[in-house]
UniProtKB/TrEMBL annotation:
Residues 1-25 are annotated as: Disordered. InterPro entries: CdiI. CDD domains: CdiI_EC536-like. This is Contact-dependent growth inhibition system immunity protein.
Length: 142
């Protein structure tokens, strides 16, 4: 997505698709994802972005702000601060197809995560796999 996203709009409006209400017996995860899609993008917290991204919901609209958060927090992590492993894990575990339309964003993320230290073992494994993942070059066919 090359144009800036209006973060005052909810994901369902950005997608142009309203999901029906979840069934009464739906899990709390399903109910939460439905609710989050109806909230303005700019109001979503990192853990809420992680939940949606982890479910592969709204990736074209959610990956850019997620990478922005990771970029903004990487410097505090390097200084010994807290780092949001949930958002990082959700973003780096998306497959190559999810990044196909965002090669520049994926390269930015690779640069960001390369500098992270003291990650938990399970996140470190996924970060290393993301760094090793081949990316399609911009403007070239896969």
């Amino acid at each position: 997505m090359s144009t800036p996203v209006n973060r005052s709009l909810p994901l369902e409006q950005l997608e142009g698709r309203r999901w029906p209400n979840p069934p009464e017996d739906a899990t709390s995860m399903v109910k939460n994802v439905h609710e989050l899609r109806r909230r303005p993008l700019g109001e979503l917290q990192a853990h809420e972005l992680a939940r949606l991204i982890g479910q592969n919901v709204g990736l074209p609209w959610l990956l850019p702000p997620a990478v922005e958060i990771l970029r903004d927090t990487a410097t505090t992590q390097a200084a010994g601060g807290w780092y949001d492993d949930d958002l990082l894990y959700a973003v780096v575990t998306r497959d190559a197809d999810a990044w196909a339309d965002f090669p520049a964003l994926a390269r930015d993320l690779k640069e960001i995560v390369t500098g992270l230290k003291d990650l938990s073992r399970y996140v470190k494994t996924e970060v290393d796999a993301f760094i090793a993942m081949p990316l399609r070059d911009e403007g070239h066919a896969p």
